[in-house]
């Protein structure tokens, strides 16, 4: 990983650096940061001569060699020094709350608009909503492009940034044209490497964020981080890692709740962890406790399904979405727990 002395390399300097690494079968990926760009060396970087030639360049501050297989997501990466702010929230300094309906119903736009107002009043800083839906059965509701227009209207009225799942490149391009703030990659696509590369590559210039959900069958945390590495390796390091329950499910829950993976992830990576207690448990009555557990384990935020009238929602809302009162109480309790955990230690 190359860290320049100035905020970024000039085109001429980048060409020189690229020429050097290509001699050794590697390539350069520019990672655009808020204040400084860094340049990842992708490929087998175990070439001492290459390192020496790069360090000898007058405009290079240093060259770091990262041993981890996920070089950009590793805690020793220069990316660990970036200050991450999303929706006005400095991540890691205060909790991030994402809330909204499972599925946006284009036949009832008012329900989504009222829900957007309600989740903002409850304390959420981002609005989630399903536009396109991955369904087990082909006969189930698959989503509607028109639902995105409703979410855009909700963003205009509330000022809340949007979180929208994309499942293919066509949906990705539509979401980018709509300037969706956070692109969600769902559990079913967590190992869709072609999609991961496309999302990382196409979202990098727009500075969109990516919320990557943990694959349902990802037993190894390193496999989760390797999936995130695909995104960063294509140029976008604005990544949120989202544990959302795995298989096999526990009797009584929708999945196997996995908020406890948070400390393992934080030992390995700088990337923020935002847990999803709604899909993890699958029942609204369990969501508050799972939310508090996630914060206790060190999560940087939560993604909670919510609806002003869960029974009128489509998708999973009737069984797992919180109503505004329950959401407000859950966010308030999670903030209190966060403050307790993060209060300064006394000398």
What are the salient characteristics of this protein?
alpha/beta; 2 domains; 15% strand; 3-deoxy-D-arabino-heptulosonate 7-phosphate synthase; two-stranded antiparallel sheet; 36% helix; eight-stranded parallel sheet; TIM Barrel; Alpha-Beta Plaits; 14 strands; 347 residues; transferase
Structure description:
Residues 92-330 form the DAHP synthetase I/KDSA domain. Keywords: Transferase. By secondary structure, the chain is α/β, with parallel strands linked by helices. It folds into 2 domains: 2-65, Alpha-Beta Plaits (2-Layer Sandwich); 85-342, Aldolase class I (TIM Barrel, Alpha-Beta Barrel), CATH 3.20.20.70. The chain is built from 12 helices and 14 strands. It has helices at 11-22, 48-55, 109-122, 146-158, 169-177, 193-203, 221-233, 262-268, 277-281, 287-296, 317-320, 324-342; strands at 2-4, 27-31, 38-42, 60-63, 85-86, 89-90, 96-100, 126-128, 162-165, 182-185, 209-213, 239-242, 274-275, 301-305. The strands form 4 sheets. An 8-stranded parallel β-sheet has the order 12-11-10-9-8-7-14-13. Helix 3 runs parallel beside helix 4 (146-158), helix 3 (109-122) runs parallel beside helix 12 and helix 6 packs across helix 7 (221-233). The longest helix is centred in the C-terminal third of the chain and has 19 residues, at 324-342. It starts with a strand and ends in a 5-residue tail after the last helix.
